[in-house]
Amino acid sequence: MQKIRKLLNNEYFNYILWLLLVFLSFFTIDYITRYACMLHIDFLNVKNIYATYFSIFWIIILSLILVFLPKKVGKRVYIILISIFSIYAFALLTHLSILGRTFNIYDLFSAGEGLTYFSDILNHLNPYAFLIIFLSIILCGVALKLWPETRLENRALASIFIIFLCLGFTCKTNALYYLNDTSTTEEWNSYEEPKFIYERFSNPTSSLEVSGLYEFIYRDLTLYFKKDKEISLDEINEITTYLENRKLTKENNHTGIFEGKNVIMIMMESVDNTYLNKDVMPTLNSLKSKSLYFKNRYSPIYGIGATFNSEFTSLTGTYSSTEGMASYFYTNNNYQYSLPNLFKENGYKVNSFHMNDGKFYDRSLMHKQFGFEKYNSFKDYTGKYIKTDSEILDYDNIYQAITPEEPFFSFIVTYSAHLPYTNENEVCQNKMQDKFYNKDDYETSCFKSTLYDTDTFINKLITKLKNDNKLDDTVIILYGDHLAYSYSKRVQMGGNENYNLNKGVYMIYNSKTTPEEIDTLNTTIDMVPTILNLFDLKGYDPNNYLGIDTFNKKANHIVYFSDYNWYDGKTYSGNLSKKDYLNNKKYVDNMNDYVANLIDYDNKIVMHDYYKYKEYVIRRN
After folding, report:
1. pLDDT above 50: residue 245
2. What is the rounded CA–CA span in Å between residue 532 and residue 540?
3. Alpha helices in 226-371, H assignment, sequence order
4. Residue 415 and residue 421: Cα distance in Å, rounded?
5. What is the full DSSP assignment across 162-202?
């Protein structure tokens, strides 16, 4: 007992004990975060040795900083660091629960939007996020209580500094060694190898897996502040050569079937196949059998902001960048091949409409750059926000603006089905449908009512067009922006647990067109060339786009996702076993390279304004 008491009174022992508590407080945040991610994403592995080495390195660096600070300053710095990292981890796990992926620094620019739906955030809180906060408070409190009253003598501090620094850099070296040593991993797919993920750092979830929390934050910040280099002439030529060498032909059996007709393009918020039936969405369900119905359309999420991602892609024919800023920051890019620009060049009046202000997602600037004459907020016509889609056409001035002098191209983004599906939702407050109401499942009652409200808007629009004798001369393009990721019973109602493999709603309706069900694989990036060919617009060249006209029977139609996985109609690369890979090694390797190149080209097109430089090179030559 006397020996124990003597040990507890030993200055060096207490110092080491305090350092261990500091180390543990930082390591707990990292480990629990990675463990919670592993439970949510099946390919994550909390045992990744390189991630642990990276974390130990950073924790040693942080601990050494605290060792050399005066007690009062050190305590404050420690509290600030623990608070920042624990809150960051809490937010990261909440984001993971809602969207199925972690976030990076660019997502923080959209944080304001998420905070406006506080109740929905509360519904998706991760229990491990609370565990992090709880343990952080306890460990931080104990560490503060045991904080050394005085610093050790210089010789002892120098010894600690040298020993811990050597240990830290040994960990960093080991992390990089194991990261590059593919023999230590069980990954057969080169695009799932830690080295590739770490170097590209384009997928936040898998990047966290290989880096650990602290290295992830460091790399994220480093890449954010690193100035992007301009696109080189070789890169411009490489992309141009790829696009032109495909030699895609414009003409097919659907070319020009809508030539000269008006267009109303409606991107429907959170409308997927979950409740696309005659009870919840009777109008849309009926239109399936009267339209060109694309039954195998996927809507992968690229970049930041799931709604604007689909908006950007369906109007420009390029995905948002997986590496750079959110697409709404590229307000000065050349979008000369976008839908609005080409329709405008062909004599159409082009306008866009949504309930929100133009400053949100910078739509006023972005839509003008896309080619729209004006971005129209419904508030400009009513003096108030219209968050209920069924009320949009109650205002005749809005309807007249949507259907001006012909020909016209009007783009509308709906809103009713936007999260949250709680009593905060205006539709659920005022338009809750009795037939859907279930006091024991308010979320489903609300979600169904919001979908019904959007469906009512579509029905009203078709009725008005018919009464004004405009229906036959108007093509209505209807598609969902993304899956209803915030609806907690989505998988229970038939949705796929893998976010990639959920199909999206997409149909093109005209009262005079022969209905057709299209089986061809397609994604949001294919919409622009498909639509342009259906209208046979002058200036359209299929070789200007990474996406492919869905009706081009000679092309290779695949779906590829921001995490470098792909689906060819039979094989989803994320589900391949090592045996499957070895049996089809050449094909899978070729597909992996093909998809990696497509994503790389897309990033360069968006981040470096490829189309502007392409035109410059063409003029110079």
Report:
1. yes
2. 7
3. 233-245, 282-288, 306-316, 339-345, 363-370
4. 13
5. HHHHHHHHHHHHHHHHHHH-GGGS---SGGGSHHHHHHH--
